[in-house]
Amino acid sequence: MNCTIITIGDELLIGQTVDTNSAWIGQMLNAIGIKIYERIAVGDIAVQIVKAIDTARSQSDIVIITGGLGPTKDDITKKTLRTYFHAGEVLHEPTLARIRAIFEKRGRPLLAINETQALVPDNCTVLDNERGTAPGMWFDVEGKVIVSLPGVPYEMKHLITNKVIPKLKTQFPLPEIYHRNLLCVGIGESSIAQMLSGIEDSLPSTIQLAYLPDLGMVKLRLSAYGITDAAHKAMLDKVYDEMKRIMQAYVFAEEDITLQEAVGRLFQAKGKTFAVAESCTGGYVGHLVTSIPGSSVYFKGSLVTYSYSMKEAILGVKKETLETQGAVSEACVREMLDGLLRVSDADYGVAISGIAGPDGGTAAKPVGTVCFAVGSKESIKTYTIQFFPSRMENIRASAMTALNLLRKAII
Amino acid sequence: MNCTIITIGDELLIGQTVDTNSAWIGQMLNAIGIKIYERIAVGDIAVQIVKAIDTARSQSDIVIITGGLGPTKDDITKKTLRTYFHAGEVLHEPTLARIRAIFEKRGRPLLAINETQALVPDNCTVLDNERGTAPGMWFDVEGKVIVSLPGVPYEMKHLITNKVIPKLKTQFPLPEIYHRNLLCVGIGESSIAQMLSGIEDSLPSTIQLAYLPDLGMVKLRLSAYGITDAAHKAMLDKVYDEMKRIMQAYVFAEEDITLQEAVGRLFQAKGKTFAVAESCTGGYVGHLVTSIPGSSVYFKGSLVTYSYSMKEAILGVKKETLETQGAVSEACVREMLDGLLRVSDADYGVAISGIAGPDGGTAAKPVGTVCFAVGSKESIKTYTIQFFPSRMENIRASAMTALNLLRKAII
């Protein structure tokens, strides 16, 4: 049982929009045992859309299409599908009622082009979109399924979760799937591969090991598709336990969660709180932490003191320290952390100051030099790490390091 | 002249990695007049890679492949290309020397699997990768070009910018391309479409208008490919000027920049600074602002006071206000902004407090309720806006709104 995902939109090809939908759909379908065979992105051009659907149908049982369902003239997915299936057009009354209600609630006038969103090909099953104006469409074609969904992530996610997945589950016998994840931080992909080479060489052909590096971390994923017997699962579990033993010093989670989630769970479990003092990361650590619902239980806040004056006024960093040692120094981050623990009531804290680049580097402190202080009122440690020449990579790597330092401080 | 992009990696299909490479490559090639015809993502499986290359070659002049060049066993792109071209294998000495130097600098032992990264098919031109261990490979095949690059964004970007684009420019006659962008904020896609319907109906077939909605903003893009004469450009310019006149109240930029860049340029041009007091956005406003190089000129910092205690201790919000009106109230954001302007030396400030969700909503203040205060010591305005039911959408929309309020405050 496999699926091809087609994303439609010139904005994807010219690169003005990053396609986050495909990754999310991939995760959701994978979790119910449907493999993604291929992903195809095409522009808002009928012949290309048709070619992509033909390719997808020839190789997959399920085709999921997102995008191109907006009210404007450049969106042609629905029209193309209707032509493709030689279908007529019908008005879907519940959708029209919903569109009217949405516009009424927003106090905006209902336009004729908005009303056309309630017109659908007469051979589809409408998937009610409770979050927007473009309905989802489900086509049953010669034992295969073609689904067309709006490209807006918030609407697409709702339709996949509440309409598409339940319907797929009733319509197809889905194979069992067995995955286990081991998430490591503070070690590179090739070093891990060397540590695991013995295991990898002796893996049975039915079990796959994938290395999924992400900035500052590597996800290891053992998987087996179509497993039904306990003995096979036990075999995978045995390999997993052995991997875990070898990688012990670097493992931060055994589920597919983010480092900020792992840190949050640790603090919550221990009933402790933390706060952050940021400079070069500019609020990114705070953003990562607060992207997790419920983070207010353990997260007090982040003081992003980007200027010298803010470092002095908010965190009490000494003018002398800034003048003699600079803002990117272990002395400065120590004072930032001291100040943070003084002005907040957090149990733990981490302070970060570095040169993200592209400007500001010197021979002694090149771009990518980042200082960290971590700890509690009882004990503070400082570090200096040399990262990359690129701004965004430095910001991301610094944030991941800060989170990992917090993790190590509390365990 | 067009290009198909192939991205390789199981991690893309199972959705553990979001493909940001394709969008970036699309932007870069578009800028030099190369259209992206299609994007294909396949797993680390030889037959699928071969099929994707065949498809890409049949429809495009240029094929760019990223991913699958790592040292581990699951990375098979290089081996597959060698088999595909029936090529032999040669050692690329400069790459081996670079790999050795990288490991020496990092103080890590050089492993045999790392050395294999210097082996390349004997029919390719090596594109030196100064940022990593996997070299880029350029294949000239029957008048078409196939390029294989590492999937690590930092390495891929370097190779595209410094190796691939210069080589494409010398090898192909690139058509002229003419684009103009109009970026609007604070208005929805269909309202814009209605305002521009007259223009759209009378557009000549050689000029395309695209709507590219992004959270809280819409990019309008007029484009014409293969334009060489001044008269045609003047025609596009005339349409553009008319669009600009109609959309005047909502336009924040005429180039393809982000709202945070537009705000940064405004503050820089006026020689003014700003700071932020964040609650529900958790540092995201600070992150957006500091993702722009050089933002320290106009950005003082962001005080992310996530807890009541931090709001009181850092910004001087009154306990009484929090108890009687709650943290999500115009009274609270006004006090947050007062405090921010008092403790920072910024000229302008914006304060944000809201209910991002999924928890914390009430009947009177449902999830998505966000309060803003914006201004300077001279004048402060407050607003309450109702956004979405989803956490990340609320965080993003709140941050965009805060930036737009800052923009309006200074112009």
Outline:
Two copies of one chain form a homodimer. The first copy, chain A, has 411 residues and is an alpha/beta fold. Chain A has 16 helices and 17 strands.
* Model regions low in confidence, pLDDT < 50 over at least 5 residues of chain A: none
Q: Considering residues with a beta carbon less than 8 A from a beta carbon on another chain, report the largest interface and each chain's count.
A: A-B, 101 and 101 residues
Oligomer: homodimer
Number of individual domains of chain A: 3
Number of helices of chain A: 16
Annotation keywords:
6-stranded mixed beta sheet; 5-stranded mixed beta sheet; 25% strand; alpha/beta; 3 domains; 16 helices; 411 residues; homodimer; Alpha-Beta Plaits; Molybdenum Cofactor Biosythetic Enzyme, Chain A; globular; Maf protein
